[in-house]
Amino acid sequence: MRLAELSALSGVPTATIKYYLREGLLPPGERVSATQAEYGEEHVRRLGLVRALIQVGRVPVATARQVLAAVEDDSVDLTTRLGTAVEALPHGPEPTAGAEVLRTAERTASALLERLGWHRAASESAAYGMLVSALTTLLELGYPCDVDRLLPYGELAGDLAVHDIDLIEQFQAPTTRLEAAVALTVLYEPVLLSLRRMAHAEESTRRFTDAAPEAGG
Amino acid sequence: MRLAELSALSGVPTATIKYYLREGLLPPGERVSATQAEYGEEHVRRLGLVRALIQVGRVPVATARQVLAAVEDDSVDLTTRLGTAVEALPHGPEPTAGAEVLRTAERTASALLERLGWHRAASESAAYGMLVSALTTLLELGYPCDVDRLLPYGELAGDLAVHDIDLIEQFQAPTTRLEAAVALTVLYEPVLLSLRRMAHAEESTRRFTDAAPEAGG
């Protein structure tokens, strides 16, 4: 298909597609004349991933390029490619806490992974840094964040990961599967956070508003 | 305590505290002289919430003011105050999809709430809008997001909410409880997302890398 069709099919304006091509976020089409190129299914799919990263994940262009490079790097195994891609995603602010709070947060995070039995999750990963950072803020503000209270969140995250990886396993080709893994990592985050907020409203109403009449009935 | 002590105790610079006071994010201290005011425990706690909102939640100052007004409004019941406060939090970009995709996303979201039995979660809430927006992106990119696949995420979010509200119930005074609810809504989001990413690494290694030797053994 031509650029105009790729634009119509993907809903991405031609100017934006040309920008992604220039920035190396989208592989070039197959040249058919001096001024025209032909694009295929893989461009539609890749464009979807670029939009997921940039528009939903708010990932900077340079970071998106790193993520895509990891997705395409077929010199290493799938798990390493996925790990490198997810590692390149933004992980929130660096902790600004004092040394003592930071040490407590690191001890808590490491004890939590131990209790969860997550021996494969590298403690030098960006996600681990994001957890430590979130724990330092909770500690500094005096909110509860000991291992016992964090454990159910870890267990539920483990259940979520099983569903996530089930979804990803539906995609057969290695690169397609990696693209799906990165896109679903980014795109299911707002799904999960919005459902958690709605569940809060539901649970808090059930507990605090419905409770009185139920107790009396 | 004086401003300098409040700053030392909270780790927030005095210039930042003065800015929060000017912006009405922190109630004024009790005047003890023309140039000095006395601050208490509630200032330490409130400062924690303001930092959670602005530094971790990246909430604009005007939005933080709305959230805090809802926390303080004791003319309505706790559930309404919490609902209004969480409603004021940012909920990500508005959907930009075409009318047909938007209708499918809305139908999916509404069917999902029906299946979850969440009759109390208002479909006009900001969190619902955030879900619909995330679903339109998944639909546009051709990723799976039917009710059956979304259901486990909703169920797990429901389990998370039970733990969240358990944490919040530890705080007795109504305003303290609301402050904790808002702070924990914001502060546990990075905890959850980082644990999900680590669980991905764990589950994907278990399934794709460890799988071969296990099958042979």
Structure write-up:
Two copies of one chain form a homodimer. Chain A has helices spanning 3-10, 14-22, 41-56, 61-72, 78-88, 99-116, 126-140, 147-169, 174-209, 211-216; strands spanning 30-31, 37-38. The first copy, chain A, is mainly alpha-helical and 217 residues long. In chain A, a hairpin with a 5-residue loop joins strand 1 and strand 2 (37-38). The first copy, chain A, is built from ten helices and two strands, in the order H-H-E-E-H-H-H-H-H-H-H-H. The relative contact order of chain A is 0.09. The first copy, chain A, starts with a helix and ends with a helix. The longest helix of chain A has 36 residues, at 174-209. At the A-B interface, helix 3, helix 5, helix 7, helix 8 and helix 9 of A face helix 3, helix 5, helix 7, helix 8 and helix 9 of B.
Oligomeric grouping of the chains: homodimer
- The structural class of chain A is mainly alpha
The parts of chain A where pLDDT drops under 50 for at least 5 residues are: none
Largest sheet entry of chain A? 2 strands, antiparallel
Largest inter-chain contact set: A-B, 86 and 86 residues
Order of helices and strands of chain A: HHEEHHHHHHHH
The coarse silhouette of chain A is elongated
N- to C-terminal distance of chain A:
66 Å
Strand order of the largest sheet of chain A: 1-2
Note the beta-strand portion of chain A.
under 5%
The total count of strands of chain A amounts to 2
Helix fraction of chain A, binned, reads over 70%
What Rg of chain A is obtained from the alpha carbons, in whole angstroms?
22 Å
How many distinct helices of chain A?
10
Mean pLDDT of chain A: 83
